[in-house]
Amino acid sequence: MMAVGGGGGEEMERDFEAKLRLQQPSTTGDAGHARPAVQRTNSIVFRAPQEQFSINDFELGKIYGVGSYSKVVRAKKKDTGNVYALKIMDKKFIAKENKVSYVKLERIVLDQLDHPGIIRLCFTFQDTYSLYMALECCEGGELFDQITRKGHLSEDEARFYAAEVIDAMEYIHGVGLIHRDIKPENLLLTTDGHIKIADFGSVKPTKDSPITVLPNSANEKTCTFVGTAAYVPPEVLNSSPATFGNDLWALGCTLYQMLSGSSPFKDASEWLIFQRIIARDLKFPEYFSHEARDLIDKLLDTDPSKRPGAGPDGYASLRKHPFFKGIDWKNLRKASAPKLALEKDTSVDYDSQDTSWNPIHVGGAPSHQQGIPDGSPVATSSFEPQSHISRLASIDSFDSKWQEFLEPGETIVMISNLKKVQKLTNKKVQLILTDKPKLLYVDPSKMTANVNIIWSDNAGDLSVQVASSSHFKICTPKKVISFEDAKQRAWQWKKAIEGLQHC
Ligand SMILES: Nc1ncnc2c1ncn2[C@@H]1O[C@H](COP(=O)(O)OP(=O)(O)OP(=O)(O)O)[C@@H](O)[C@H]1O
């Protein structure tokens, strides 16, 4: 494995310190204001402070999830006992992958948002290698997982979640921000089942936004396609400038997915998905109510200005849509939320024989890389195993559940809950790649049942074939094992495995 640290990390640290310098509020004028000045500026007073903490100040727990350039881990501050979702980003990796502007933008924007439906940033800190963002925890996981576990949601459940998303989106749009990546994976659930919107790395401030951004950070991505293929509106595919309507389209796709279990425009590749979006190839399952169909149909209007929420009467037209009859908009957060479905502890997934109706998500494949056929979203996804993984991997050792499969000093490079696709049944497995390197999968319901895939540095003896962003095969001379990754990280798996072969 590559040595860690080096010049890139220090440069990154200097860059962050210079550009996101914490300034003492002056004793006059605006000093008492919690909010920074409204202009684009380098001088920012953060609400969530830059602390001098070290990772050793925290007891690390389970991994909540892995993003394309970060890992989010449960972390308990040893002195206070407070628990956070710690987003850990490797400086060298984000510099190399040109993600610096996304990280800065997310940090600075999250800092200024204050709404119960939006993940709160509590504080940040850094060390030589990593940047850390302490976020409030969402122990209920992603809405995506609720949809997957339940198959699809009832109209009452979907109505509740959609109302909470709309409430938070109205706030986001009210401060002149376009989120640009609304989807079930970015809607997190609290322990008591309420929604919080996460992932502000793709956000776009409009000209009149009172939100402070760093010079250029809002402009850097004006010509970049950001978002996730399945939720991208047709006007974005036609290179129109971003508008609030983009998020309303994504909301329509998300509501459709809540009710059906699958996004409305799905196909085997991004290119085919885009064709369906442009053709507005939209079909509703029969069991959708008239009100649900009507709302989704309107949100998926090809004219962004006609989508409810985008017109002159703003969000009022969304709130008064008949689908939301009975919703008490003023007391959403006080209402009791739908019961969360917990992860099933069964390894065989009998209810997913028809994989063609499984949700299509695009969110984890690498972008602009070596002629990848169904490419990726965007700005969100690429994966580079070496320094990034070797640094972050050690964190996994704290996820003690998988510790028994590791030797002393061995760390996990990548880990995902996947379906092993078999002829008759699909089986849930945990695929684990370590820095040894070692590749194995474990039946999570029988922790003793693990299978080692024979490692080889030779691509002729161990290779990964990606069929789509959710399907890949690991090929060895003796067997070919097919996997399905609902979170579309097939390309990340290929890169991670090949990265270790080339080490
Ligand atoms: N505050 C939080 N509480 C609990 N889990 C979280 C929290 N924030 C993120 N997660 C989980 O961690 C995963 C990784 O989050 P992260 O923000 O690093 O990347 P992402 O937005 O999912 O992916 P990408 O960067 O590729 O768009 C998320 O998918 C989510 O499941």
UniProtKB/TrEMBL annotation:
Disordered as annotated region, ranges: 364-383
Gene Ontology, cellular component aspect: cytoplasm; membrane
Gene Ontology biological process terms in this record: intracellular signal transduction
Principal location listed in the UniProt entry: cytoplasm
Keywords associated with the record: ATP-binding, Cytoplasm, Kinase, Membrane, Nucleotide-binding, Phosphoprotein, Serine/threonine-protein kinase, Transferase
Domain Protein kinase, chain residue ranges per copy: 58-324
CDD domains registered for this protein in UniProt: STKc_PDK1
EC number: 2.7.11.1
EC supergroup of this enzyme: transferase
Name by which UniProt lists this protein: non-specific serine/threonine protein kinase
